[in-house]
Amino acid sequence: MRLYPNSPPQERKPVDNCARYLLNNTKYLKYDDYLKAALPIATGLIGGACRHLIKERMDLTGARWTITGAEAVLPLGSLYISGHWDEYWQFHLQKEHKRNHLALYSSGIPLSKEVLKARCSTTPLPLPIPV
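RESULT FIELD:
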């Protein structure tokens, strides 16, 4: 189905793709039936979620966000609102422990090894440092 037959093919392509998608998925596009059954239509839910999560969070008076900062904060807000915060936080702590502690100390206490290497004096240290 060509909606704009006189348009150049490159300009028509997005419209043709959309039309093809709608035609191939017609059996799922029964919004009138969904509304009669009092089922929510996703676009309204998505719009409300975007307004709540993004606009109200990012559009605070005096707030200035970089793309990087916004991309870091928005998933956290989404986790909190969806009720998955506690599960995420446990996951985060486990990953942080593995990354910052287990990997760092897997071969002993690194600071004591560095102290022993850097020691210039030939006199013994007053306390033994475990290696």
